Amino acid sequence: MIDFSVRCAALLLICVATCQSALAQQVDYRTEIKPLLAEKCYACHGALKQESDLRLETRALMDRGSVLVAGSPNESELLARVSAQGDGRMPPHGEGSALRDDEIDLLRRWIGQGAKAPDEAIPKSPSEHWAFLPIQRPDMTLAAGQNPIDGLLTQQRRLFGVTTTQPASRTIALRRLYLDLIGLPPTLDQLDDDRAWEVIVDQLLESDAHAERWARHWMDVWRYSDWYGLGQQLRVSQKHLWHWRDWIIGSLAEDKGYDRMVMEMLAGDELEPNDPEVVAATGFLARNYYLFNRTTWLDSTIEHTGKAFLGLTLNCAKCHDHKYDPISQVDYYRFRALFEPHQVRLDQLPGESDLDKDGLPRVFDDHIDEPTYLHIRGDAKNPDTSRVISPGVPAILEDLAPPIVPIDLPHEAYAPGTRPHVQQQRLRQAIEAVDVAEKELKAAKKGLAQKVSDTETASTKTFEFTDEFDAADTEAWELVGLGWEYAGGMLKQTKPTRERYMARLRQPLPRDFEMTCRYTTTGGTTYKSVTFRFDQSADGKHANYVYSSAHAPAPKVQAAYTRDGKDHYPGEGRTPTKIEVGHQYQLKFAVRDTLVNVWLDGEFLQAYRFPGPRREGSFSLSAFDATVAFDSLSIRSLPPDLELTESGQVPMDAESALSLAESKHRVAVARVASVQATIAADRSKHLKEPDADLLANAAVRAQALLQKRIAELNQLGRDDKAKQASAQELRKANERLAAAESGAVDYLPLKGSRKALETPAHSESQYPHVYSATSTGRRLALARWVTNHQNPLTAHVAVNHIWMRHFGSPLVDSVFDFGLRAKPPRHQAVLDLLADELIQNGWSLRHLHRLIVTSDTFRLRSSTAGEQANHRLDPENQLYWRANARRMESQVVRDSLLQLAGQLDSTIGGPSIDPAKGGNRRSLYFLHSRDQQDRFLSLFDDADLMQCYRRSESIVPQQALALSNSKLAIEMSATIARQLPAESEEAFVRSAFETILCRDANDEELAACVSFLKNGDDRTRAQLVLAILNHNDFVTIR
Amino acid sequence: MTNTPNARVTRRTLLGSGLGFGSLALTAMLNGEGDAAEFTAPSGKPHFAPKAKNVIWLFMRGGVSHMESFDPKPALNQYAGKTISETPFAAVQDPEKLKRVRVVVVNDANGQQRNKIYPLQVGFKKYGQSGIEVSDWFPHIGLTIDDIAVIRSMYTTDDNHGAQVQFHSGRHMLDPRVPTIGAWVTWGLGTLNENLPQFISIGPRFFDKRDGHYLGPAYDSVGLKVDPNNPLDYAKPEGDIRSGEQRKTFDLVRRLNRLAAREYPNDSSLDARIKSYELAYRMQTAVPDVIRFDTETANTKRLYGLDQKETRPFGEKLLAARRFAEQGVRFIQIMHGDGAAGAWDQHSNLKAKHAELSMQVDRPIAGLIQDLKQRGMLDETLVVFATEFGRTPGSQGANGRDHHPFGFSVWMAGGGIRGGMVHGSTDELGFHAVEKPHYVTDIHATLLHQLGLHSHRLHVPGHKRLERDFGTVIDEIRA
């Protein structure tokens, strides 16, 4: 009892103590209350919306709304509403989660303590937000010849008592300039270049290497990704997206205006429908393709159009109005409506009709009447179908938007099959097919003749070898291993073994050959196999072979192969057949390229294709678990006109072959006619000529005839199922022909494009060959709005990206969010100045680069040595009083290694390269997708596919391992070392520092390195170079 | 809501090098009052006294049939061949109850309901003092059941294999990618071993091969293979360099970088890089040493099934996991089952395939628990057994089960988790998690709690985490 009460009292004491201390604690408005209100209340009760005329951003505003009674929490409406249950609760259901008990308690205590808060200025209305205001070129007076960037920044530095540091040495500045502008380090000659800085700058800016370097930057911002999926199923982005990458490079190389680039990316197909060079830009949109979910696809498009060009986080308004910015949920769906009609397709390009090999990925307006609905709370399954949302830009800047004007497209754009190159290509293919069919027909006729006369083809025999094995012929054969004997006119293997004993033919075989051998399996243990190997490598790890096995439960003849030392026995290469011990057989096989046909005792057994490509190697006879007697063998070149049966097929007699060839020929001829008729019909239809109907009817007939010919061909198939199907086809073709006579059906226009599947439930064949002749013009209107000179966001956002990549830190930290939460930039005047410069100079990026890199600020040194005062005042270098040291981006690391070794392949553009295949092209050409990324690049923070407005710069040990252990680093070190002067250790070290780090080695460095090299050789020198490549000053842009 | 850009150098990008801090003197002056001050980066110390130090995370890729592993449903035998609507439990298909799922692939052949009840393909036994029932496919795990808390009331919202990513990140495939649980743990806690990476991943991954996401690549797991000769990328020179030569080269690099540090006194990146080279050099030997099993006894190896062809591959990974845990690696993530969909995906042939797969993992996992226990490590090592989702009570085709996100089982052991208990339940058919249902992030929250971390304190400015992302600690299974 006593015990209990004591414990109780103790508990009570503890409680009182803690409660008192909590009560006694003053609640701090700025750190405890304001953030809470900001999170829970400001979205509706702030400058943005002012719902119920109530704002809560300052104490004065709260008083104005009479929601507080200082000192009396229980009389305060604010507290009542946040702690209410049910409908009256704030924030309301769906607008935010309820306050937790501890948060309510905090509010209670704050009000109880008198609701103390400092006087604060009332936040401005969103339209006064700095980023939404027109760009104003700053007033300034510059010293003669002074770069305006320097003018503005020196003024700022002066204001804060910070002085500008010394310029970097010429060589370090040059290295920085080269890496910055072209992504490659300068050569020794380039370091010695004493021409004026501006001259060098111009030369670099005009180089292709500059376009490649900055293309990679923009590929980050614009989310470049090659396609990926599962196996062959394309799920994300598009095949051949490199055309867009090459468009970026090309645009930068010609210094296309940034405004024009943006326009082409958003609406190139509406701007220049017939110019593939412009349409290629829409790869920007095609990249967002997502097979499984249209909403996800459009969400990405909306989000990244907003972030990349406008610095607006539109994505935050998908489920509800934006919490911070003046973007309503309706704005979000208006923006979606701009993109609603568009779909993605691959257009055929000149020279390649196989769209899996090449094609232009692009967008186009497909469903021009597709309505857009607001998704209630962002739920695609719950659209508000009571109201169709009309396309438009966010209300805040909508005054600048031009009207949306639909665009009539030229027929080549919406009917890609009418492009001359497509027509020509299709026709050429059809004609070539006729040529092939004619040849086959001729051969088939000859085959028949041959059969009739039973004469051998007099083909040129380049190789002929026969052996009756009457006597040992050591010139011809190399007998490997034990057990070989010549006896009784036979070559015998008398020891059953699994060792590689063999009779190897010394002469090489022709690539295509025919072998015939008579032999008897005379005995053996388990498998009793007799093997005929060819293409056999010296180490035996690679070969193709045919063998017979007299293994009792399952005797067979098998085509098999060895790859990387592993034997493979494919099911398709196996024919179970009776092979008995003691019985003589004649095995014959013929090989053409990877195809083999096998006969046993004159009877066709099988056709099989070995996995290619073929390699050269030797021919041999051997036994496995068997004894064997070879009676005779002959090998000869395969007659070129000897027809082999294709794998998976059975051979046919000469009569059938002839009727097949004839049928194929008829198909080929009908196809030419069909293509010609279709082209003629397409042409007259799009030119609206009077004979259009007539030609259309001719096309239907030609197409139906083709259909009929194909069905007839299929009738010759051996498979009953196929025959049945073709009977139906034939009926349909006849019906169609009849319908064509009466003019009841339309012809199928020529196809020049492949639309990406809208969902996995679709199949490509259900899509029409001709698309909408009208484009809605919505995206073009959007593009014109984005690039309107009055739009304050576009130039600001672009300038900020560019600045960040030159200086290592941006002017506005939140590079993709210029909304209300983005603080005014540290150097608004600089941002404004450069934005104005950009616009006034035709949006020339080159102009901007030039202005920036010719400033003194760009050329300052990065060290803080001797700069204690500056460093104390501005440790983060917000005033750019010195240069920021940065780590090279992943691509620059690899490209520089190759460049220093003189190994960089400077070929520009083209299909993306599989990183596994390697090579020495610049890194931006590597495939970059979820499934394919170069592992070396990945370790150095390669661009994030999903979003990469700014690269990360991590420092992790795996980078050290990559730079010291990778084949790339090791090989390049050795190559560089070989190119440096080896006459003295000192000369070598000095030259290594200059070449790799673009600076002289100081005495201590020199001493350390010379001592490293002492008594060394090539290896040591290579390792010294490797060490310098691992120097912090290599991966760092100083 | 809005996202801030990737910071150039995030907190402790390396080894607590202090990058990204720096004096705020002028920063404050230039920016006015900064609201960044409200955010405190993790100190590398737990928020409160932890129960566990390391996590061994075992993930069965594909979906393990919950009814045929840890949640037996005799009703399936009783109603075999009937449609669900013919059973007394027809209400499980009430459309309202099925709303939870968010379909990625509309009209996909996967993730559908299968109506015809498919009987259990394996028997059950009670194990241990707790008498918890475990299927005959997991007899060895059954023997350790008194150390395990089985959670039979899991659900997720993706009915296709995006659930792989979802179980690790808490976010659906259609949402943006966010950091995984392993990344949060590594971000929140300091290192225990300077020679080894803190977050290791072994085994196949498919839909998302990264972990750090907005926390930065420094929080991605380091992918390893259990091959002492080639355990990680660039672990040894891909060229002719001898180890003595390499030591000399590394020494020279350090010497030169230290000299450079004089030239660049306040360059924290340079300091970090010097340290990274030291760690890299040590890692080259430390990592292979951990996965070299010479010092392990034959008994231990047998425990993990290294003596048997079927169990050896997974057993080696688990033995490596124990050795990494021993060395202080925080988070060891081990995936089982190849392919995009994962091996545990028996749309057909469930009996034979599940039996085969269970056999591959059963002995090694039981061995791991036993080994941790005998070494006194189980108290501080949390073992999680998880999978993407369960499988349908109804049959797909003749002999398979489809994906089933509405109810499935996972389990946890060690690290202060109560053993020998079952938490939550599904209905009689194993269809819905009915009693104490848990979304995947509740597993995260519980795990973080055992490590001494409040999940709510794991966030960075500009990247809003939803209440659901943080999850709720499952108190009932904590010892």
Task: Report on this structure.
- The complex is a heterodimer of chains A (1038) and B (479).
- Helix content of chain A is 41%, strand content 14%.
- Chain A is an alpha+beta fold.
- In chain A, the strands form six sheets. In chain A, strands 8, 9, 10, 11, 12, 13, 14, 15, 16, 17, 18, 19, 20 and 21 form a 14-stranded antiparallel beta sheet that branches.
- In chain A, β15 and β16 form a beta hairpin.
- Chain A is globular.
- Chain A starts with a helix and ends with a strand.
- The model of chain A is unreliable at 1-21 and 454-459 (pLDDT under 50).
- Chain B has 479 residues and is α/β, with parallel strands linked by helices.
- Helices cover 28% and strands 13% of the residues of chain B.
- Chain B has helices at residues 25-31, 75-78, 139-143, 163-169, 181-188, 243-263, 268-290, 298-303, 312-326, 350-374, 440-450, 467-470, and strands at 54-60, 124-127, 132-135, 148-155, 199-202, 222-224, 331-336, 381-387, 390-391, 403-404, 408-413, 421-423, 425-426, 433-435, 438-439.
- In chain B, strands 1, 4, 5, 6, 7, 8, 11, 12 and 15 form a nine-stranded mixed beta sheet that branches.
- The radius of gyration of chain B is 24 Å and the shape is globular.
- The chains are: A alpha+beta (1038), B alpha/beta (479).
- At the A-B interface, α2, α26, α29, α30 and α32 of A face α1, α6 and α7 of B.
